[in-house]
């Protein structure tokens, strides 16, 4: 009972922040629903516009998602909101799949026409700064109303049952031709394509270190994950096929898949053969990796093992702190 009361209190606090225009609160509430559809939203303000940037395993049709977010945002009744922009990018692709923008009518006019609530969001490649807006006086009354928007999860408190079954999200990827692993999404900054021509080799480094590239104005070290953990490297597996595809005008080679991880304020790009999916798992099912279950070259980088999915979960901190790399040495 106490847990249920705490969850309801936390949810009410998130709602209050969302009504004040807090971008992080709006994104948190949206993601409670979107994560079930394997999507993740980032929300930010730009002037009087609210931008919602969606990343998805597979880009959804724009109209249903745009309409759902639009109706949900209207319920927030943000007085300073004038435009709502929603953009979507499929994970692993460099370009925006689609982007739509709608005007938001003034709050007073909207209230006269409908009992819904108004708000707006805007998107970019990076989350934009939060922009507060005065909270409406009708917050308590609205909390007592029944949700009508498609994103109904925004106004549904987490029940005690849900709290006991909280799951974390992981990215599944392959690190060899037949082996897959998981990384917690919380440790991933971005998934992207990196063309070999964008990589600047660095001399006197281990063979697993491919070099450096420009990432959002930063120097990012790129490592062939397969080689780092004692398997065949993706660069070795795909070198000939990649060069052939790049030379073939009928097939454009876009580059290798890279997972940019972050831990302790440091980043590292992991080159892998394939990005597979986003999965949810209960962290309580994570067990210590048995010594006889994995090769000794892989064990130092395993955070734990999920028995039901037969999957090792890699430790981003251990991968970045690998003493053989020394890519972050002063």
UniProtKB/TrEMBL annotation:
CheW-like domain segment(s): 167-325
PROSITE patterns (alphabetical): CHEW
One Pfam family cited in the UniProt record for this chain: CheW
Domain of life: Bacteria
GO biological process: chemotaxis; signal transduction
SUPFAM superfamilies, alphabetized: CheW-like (SSF50341)
Compositional bias ranges of the Low complexity kind: 115-126
Sequence segments annotated as region (Disordered): 115-135
InterPro entries: CheW (IPR039315), CheW-like_dom_sf (IPR036061), CheW-lke_dom (IPR002545)
GO CC, one annotated term: cytosol
Protein name: Chemotaxis protein CheW
Species the sequence originates in: Drouetiella hepatica Uher 2000/2452
């Amino acid at each position: 009972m106490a847990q249920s009361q705490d969850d309801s209190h936390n949810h009410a606090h998130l709602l209050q922040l969302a009504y004040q225009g807090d971008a992080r609160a709006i994104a948190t509430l949206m993601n409670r629903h979107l994560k079930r559809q394997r999507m993740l939203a980032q929300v930010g303000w730009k002037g009087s516009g609210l931008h919602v940037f969606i990343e998805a395993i597979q880009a959804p049709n724009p109209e249903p998602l745009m309409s759902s977010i639009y109706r949900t945002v209207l319920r927030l009744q943000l007085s300073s909101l004038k435009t709502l922009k929603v953009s979507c990018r499929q994970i692993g692709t460099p370009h925006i799949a689609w982007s739509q923008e709608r005007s938001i009518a003034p709050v007073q006019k909207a209230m006269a026409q409908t009992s819904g609530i108004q708000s707006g969001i805007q998107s970019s490649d990076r989350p934009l700064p939060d922009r507060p807006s005065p909270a409406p006086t009708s917050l308590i009354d609205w909390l007592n109303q029944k949700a009508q928007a498609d994103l109904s999860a925004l106004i549904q408190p987490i029940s005690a049952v849900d709290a006991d079954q909280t799951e974390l999200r992981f990215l599944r990827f392959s690190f060899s031709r037949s082996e897959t692993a998981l990384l917690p999404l919380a440790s991933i900054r971005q998934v992207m394509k990196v063309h070999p021509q964008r990589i600047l080799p660095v001399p006197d480094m281990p063979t697993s270190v491919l070099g450096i590239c420009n990432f959002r104005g930063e120097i990012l070290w790129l490592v062939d994950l397969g080689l780092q953990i004692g398997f065949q490297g993706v660069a070795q597996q795909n070198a000939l096929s990649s060069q052939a595809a790049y030379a073939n005008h009928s097939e454009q080679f876009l580059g290798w898949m890279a997972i940019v991880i972050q831990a302790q304020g440091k980043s590292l790009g992991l080159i892998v053969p394939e990005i597979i999916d986003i999965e949810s798992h209960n962290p309580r099912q994570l067990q210590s990796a048995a010594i006889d279950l994995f090769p000794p070259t892989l064990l130092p980088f395993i955070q734990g093992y999920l028995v039901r999915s037969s999957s090792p979960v890699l430790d981003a901190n251990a991968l970045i702190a690998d003493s053989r790399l020394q890519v972050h040495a002063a």
